[in-house]
Amino acid sequence: MTSSTAWADLPLRLASAVILLLVCGFALWSGDFVFTLLLTVILLVMHWELAHMLTPMSKQVGAVSGTIAVLTLILVLRNPDSVKGIIYLGLGAACQAGLYFRLKWQGALASVCIFMTVLYLVALRASSGLEMILWLISIVVLTDVLGYFAGRVIKGPKFWPSVSPKKTWSGILAGWLASGICGWFWVSYGFLPLSAGFAIFFSVALAFASQIGDIGESALKRGADQKDSSSLLPGHGGFLDRFDGLVGATIVFAAANMFMSFG
């Protein structure tokens, strides 16, 4: 691969990333309703991509899957602290499980992870967790950006070539370094109620979770013999390609917060 070929996708990738960051930033700052609306759209599109990727000859599966996820999200949000909310969540999960008898078990697992990510981020934003969400997004973005550039400049051994041929150890370690610095920065300026040591350690853990989310989605694509989940985001592929790292990091963040209550 020549130098010019390695960076051929950079201009389009940057343009799409800037637009995406502006849209997400506007939704995040605009309040709960706009943020929830954006995440609902993302939820619907990611389910469509997932189902279409795993069952390319049955496009209606994606539409049904996304619709079930959105309806479940609405019902749970309307009943967040009641038995009804738990019942609706269970019914939604049961419907998805039935739907995914037509797919692989990996598809069902990915569906649950996507839904739980959206549900948790909506709940975190509603509970004044803006700083935590910004910290989480910063880690995911820095991990991806530093991994992209380090992997192309430094190169070196591949991290998991059979699943994600482009991901290198240099990119993985660069992402960890950037996330650790990010955690230290947020604590140093008083944005996080955590100790510096824990913030750095947990930021690196979230970076690794983000990378595993990316690799997991790569495994799904490889199993489906597809390069991208879709072509909706020029330079990136699809919504699954762009938000896979956020799903991985959010799942780990939510699990840790259940036991340590730092959010």
Please describe what this structure looks like.
By secondary structure, the protein is mainly α. The chain folds into 2 domains: 31-127, no CATH class; 129-263, no CATH class. Helices cover 76% and strands 3% of the residues. It contains 10 helices and 2 strands, in the order αααααααββααα. It has helices at residues 3-6, 10-30, 32-54, 59-78, 83-99, 105-126, 130-153, 169-188, 196-223, 239-260; strands at residues 158-160, 164-168. A two-stranded antiparallel ribbon has the order 1-2. Strand 1 (158-160) and strand 2 (164-168) form a beta hairpin. Helix 3 (32-54) runs antiparallel to helix 6, helix 6 (105-126) crosses helix 10 and helix 7 crosses helix 9. The mean pLDDT is 81.
**What is the count of structural domains?**
2
- Uncertain runs are none
Q: Average pLDDT value?
A: 81
Question: Major beta sheet, specifics?
Answer: 2 strands, antiparallel
Offer a few descriptive terms.
3% strand; mainly alpha; 263 residues; two-stranded antiparallel ribbon
Topology readout:
Blueprint: H1 3-6, H2 10-30, H3 32-54, H4 59-78, H5 83-99, H6 105-126, H7 130-153, E1 158-160, E2 164-168, H8 169-188, H9 196-223, H10 239-260
